[in-house]
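Quick bug: Oligopeptide transporter, OPT family output formatted oddly.
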Amino acid sequence: MSIAAPSNPKEITVRGIILGILITLVFTAAQVYLGLKVGLTFATSIPAAVISMALLSAFKDATIQENNIVQTIASAAGTLASVIFVLPGLLMIGWWAKVPFWPTFGACAIGGVLGVMYTMPLRRALVSQSDLPYPEGVAAAEVLKVGMASRAGAAEGKAGLWAVIWGSVASAVFAAGAAVKLMAGEVAIYFRTGSGAGAGATGIGASSSLALIGAGHLMGITVGIAMLAGLVIAWGIMVPLMTHLSPAAAGVDASAHALGIWSKEVRMMGAGVIGMAAIITLAGLAKPILGGLKSAMESARKAKLNGGVLDRTEQDLPIFVVGLVTLLSMVPAGWLLASFLQGGPLSSLAFPLVAVGIGYILIAGMFAAAVCGYMAGLIGSSNSPVSGIAILTILGAALSVGMVGRSIMGPEVAQALIAYALFVTTVVLAVAVIGNDNLQDLKTGQLVDATPWKQQVGLLIGVVAGSCVVPPVLELLNHANGFVGAPNLNSISDQPLAAPQALLISTLAKGVIGGQLRWDLLGYGALVGLLLVAINFALKKSSNGKYSLPPLGVGLAIYLPSAVITPVCIGAVTGYLFDRAMEHKVGGDTAKRLGVLVMSGFIVGESLFNVALAGLIVVTGKGEPLAIANSLSEAQTMIVALILGVAMVWGLYRWSARSGRNVAA
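Here's what came back:
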């Protein structure tokens, strides 16, 4: 389906910018919570496009390109929130007690701007002249085309908005059930493997979370199967084996034994798997990335020599502006890094440390943005190896910073070096995730005849808006709940958020700078990662690319808690079964798109409810302000959670199928 675009369509408008910023504020808050709770984030382009179309349909002169700018601005929320994979580490090591606004805003904004600049020269090579599939970018373009094309499209747009609303309401109600203590927050079972003194232990858990079911549906069956394989490796092989080798002390139950070994040893091996998978991915991308840069420079040179005017749909921000903005960004970056060190134990080394930090942001950021951008084209921005990039970035930053600070090493200096390495990594990760998002958005733009430079300006607006939201939401959650591994002196609730990615990143930084890193466990994980890469290669080759087992997905499932991964796997399988069932039905394609929007609503509703709950905790000063006293046993609350969850997911899939038929009728 193609839509003829006028030579100069309405794109960047005041109403579009305001709408994009409002959606960004909501989605960023949702993403920050989800990332801190479970260590995963989701792509916001498609729900943003649907909300935009439904609201802008009130204006007769709204264009597909204007809707595209709204989703471009809002998509920054989905990615920029990934900086919370690192930032809580500064609270965990005790460097910050509260989240300061300006340093956090500065790290996000500077990194985000650089992410846009670094990936701009790659657009022609990796988008215009590339056969990369860009699954999420293409899906967002399809949603925009369908929604703008006809009366049926308008009907689907309205149904899509209702899908997001119903999904959000259902997941908020489900989350409220856990908050009032009428259902269990987690369904879990742990048991001994064997008998006697040397018995091992293992188990499985599943968080009562529709958001995670939704995340699984959005990730798809390939990643879902990879995560299922990771669950089997972690909880079916590694945990039973390692608990058998390290028997529990007297009085320690199966769950404490299994979770203790997993958290201290198995998840570090998972980090090794992720790191190795990321390194091999980087190595394989060297050739296409260099080719992309060469092609971009060649195109710019030809355009200059021929003196021709580029078509509107090929106009990027001028390369001169890109270079100037990149260089000018180093001034606030340097000031930010210098102010971070000011008055602390590293102030005497401020100059070399700032120089190393700026150099690292420039070079590592460029590398990370290019890799993430390419991977977004290959497997989608939600599945891009941000975790692997974060692990490699903190290892590089900690080694670089540690070498500079070796001369004055002491306990206070070590803590300051760890904090500085985490702060530098935050900026690099912001570069990577926005680079990840930029190329995905530009693919959507290419398919709807958008103007690239206007999209790039839209994304910069989204970066600034998202950067304003991350610090206050992070501080609200810090004050209400706190984080696992942090002192949490000012936290009200006694149920800290897991922030699993930040815990790993801060552990790695402490290990590298303090010299206590378990390199042996990382090494074992790296060997498992190599084996998984070989299996993935063989699987792809034997099936002509039809099947794969992404090693990063397997590594994430070893590293993240089973309570997070199990519902994600369930969501991937139920999503696959739903899509298969809709394959040849009337309105089946519409039903599939509505299913995606319901699942996006699951994520938004639950996350926003819990952000609001954090606000209530802070206002009331109570750790569980909604809890109701009741006589239900733990087993009974688990059964309630199971029945209610199945009913909601099944009911909304049926609603999607019925709505798809109605739109097609």
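Actually, after a second look the formatting is fine. The beta strands are 186-193, 200-207. Closing.
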